[in-house]
Amino acid sequence: MGEDEDLEIAIRMSMQQVDDVITGDVSADSGESMTRRRELMAAAAEKRMAAAAIISPSPLPSSATVDKGKEVKSRELSVEEANELFVMVFGSEVSKGILARWCNQGIRFSSDPVTSMGLVQHEGGPCGVLAAMQAFVLKYILFFSDELKEVPSVPNRDLGSSSKSQLVPSFDFASLSEGVKLRALVRSMGEILFSCGGNRNAVIATMTIPGNGIQHFEGISEDEVFVRSLEGLSIESALDLQKVLRVETYTSRTTALQRLEANIHLFQSRVGALLFLISALLSRGLDLVQSDRDDPSLPLVTAPFGHASQEIVNLLLCGEAVPNVFDGRMDLGGGMFLKGISRNVEVGFLTLLESLNFCKVGQFLKTPKWPIWVVGSESHYTVLFALDPSIQNENELEGRETQIRKAFDAQDQSGGGGFISGDGLHQVLRETNIKLPQQKVEQLSNTDFIVWSEFWQVILDLDKSLGGLKDSSGLMGKKVFELYHFNGIAKSDLNGSQVNYGSETPLQKPRLTKLRVSVPPRWTPEEFMADVKVSSASSAGESSGNNAEISKPEPSQHAPLVDCIKTRWARAVCTWSGDPPSIV
């Protein structure tokens, strides 16, 4: 008799025994038959338990109270909660195409050695989630590499909170081990979720798939079996989500990181990006997410292409689902406000829309703690980063510009339109100690509003002794540095191919582009280059290598990414080798 038949008999016998007990009809079996019955019943129970383990995530720690009394709370969402969550993310009418995009995007690193530090995007839509996570992953890989090599448990402190700011002279991404990348990803996930939870708690969303006939074969891990069981999963409604979703709340960072690592296969699976977004939303709390937003009636995933909204990106970057990118909040009068970024951030954000004058990114996002930015275009999110944190240090010229622009923006009630009133002008002049001649003040005040570009030109022509920025030396503020741009969407590489079962196909991989950025000492490249001859003549008798470098005009290349970079460094001139960097 085969093992399966034995187990089938055992199950029937165990059920029969229950019926006999209920009816009082229990026969006096021999000792041998009773022993056989118990063995078969035990075997059946073990098989049922094994089957359940195959299709469930890794178990919680054995005690409900772990890590010095910090509680782990695990539960299912109610039907009402699941409906609120589903409608908040996708709206009440969502296409199957959008759902397919969000249910088929895992959180996985690139297999290409050059871009091995990068998360790959295969479907359009979830790029906002992946780009924000990518920014944090780079933070840990570049600036916390020593900690990633440590095998012991992560200390129960703020994740990535070290203030060290050292130069990374170069980085060979191809040399990254899988363990280092995994720890960088897990810490990034933990930091984001605790930030969403106000640094008090984090919610981790997992899934439990009902029995579906997936068998466990020798040589196949339980993680692989679980991932295979997701292949037939269809999420087309709130009820579909509620049936499989499980949420766990953690107050201990160490325990949360352990749980994330134990279930990393689930986040690497086809539902990974969606699960992490759900984790972030629940960590913040659905009520708080809605109160963060200016218009909570709109879905967080935008139609018709299913792109992540700015609210999703801001939630992951700063822990609040606000829809705007300016600093603080804007008073519209009558008790109405538009909400922006409320505090300094670890990694920042730049957008092409600012170069098109559709919005104004505030200093919180433009000058993050680490030189890493999510870059937004009209339809995609990518990541820009540097190896040297000192590129954010302001020289005299930039420091003065920041001071004046901050004072101007504080008086700008147009929502980033770049103009202020006459009274606002006088306030800006007082706060920045600019001694503008009365004739210039009257000239600017001839109209009802003072436009930033006109005001700034006056400041550029005003001598430094009067609080302006006119510098006869032309040596103020020269900077040269390198930036890297990563686009995680997998595209065909025309310069390479890979062999797949005997046939060649285009190599699908993300792109990493190195840019050389030069910021001239004048406020526009044209003005700088017009002064080259003057600067060269004045320094003809000098042998300073610095002056020679400053007098040398830079070649320039253009791509939409350069327009984004110029919103951070207004006079930037960028060059690169090969194809231009793509932000779409």
Secondary structure blueprint with pairings:
Elements: H1 3-23, H2 31-54, E1 65-66, E2 70-76, H3 79-90, H4 96-102, H5 127-143, H6 145-148, H7 178-196, E3 202-207, H8 222-229, H9 238-244, E4 245-250, H10 253-262, H11 264-268, H12 272-284, H13 286-292, E5 301-302, E6 307-308, H14 310-318, E7 329-333, E8 336-339, E9 348-351, H15 352-355, H16 363-366, E10 372-376, E11 381-385, H17 396-411, E12 419-421, H18 422-432, H19 438-444, E13 449-451, H20 452-460, E14 479-500, E15 503-519, H21 525-530, H22 532-538, H23 545-550, H24 560-566, E16 573-576
Parallel strand pairs: 9-10
Antiparallel strand pairs: 1-2, 2-4, 3-4, 5-6, 7-8, 10-11, 11-14, 12-13, 14-15, 15-16
Helix pairs in contact: 1-2, 3-9, 5-7, 5-14, 7-10, 7-12, 7-14, 12-13, 17-18
GO biological process, one term: proteolysis
Pfam families: MINDY-3_4_CD
Biased composition (Low complexity): 535-549
Fold and architecture overview:
There is one protein chain. This protein has helices at residues 3-23, 31-54, 79-90, 96-102, 127-143, 145-148, 178-196, 222-229, 238-244, 253-262, 264-268, 272-284, 286-292, 310-318, 352-355, 363-366, 396-411, 422-432, 438-444, 452-460, 525-530, 532-538, 545-550, 560-566; strands at residues 65-66, 70-76, 202-207, 245-250, 301-302, 307-308, 329-333, 336-339, 348-351, 372-376, 381-385, 419-421, 449-451, 479-500, 503-519, 573-576. It has 584 residues and is of the alpha+beta class. The strands form five sheets. The protein has a six-stranded mixed β-sheet, with helices on both faces. Strands 1-2-4-3 form a four-stranded antiparallel β-sheet. Strands 5-6 form a two-stranded antiparallel ribbon. Strand 10 and strand 11 (381-385) form a beta hairpin. Helix 12 crosses helix 13. The longest helix is centred in the first third of the chain and has 24 residues, at 31-54. The model is unreliable at 13-30, 45-69, 496-503 and 523-551 (pLDDT under 50). One of its GO terms (biological process) is protein K48-linked deubiquitination.
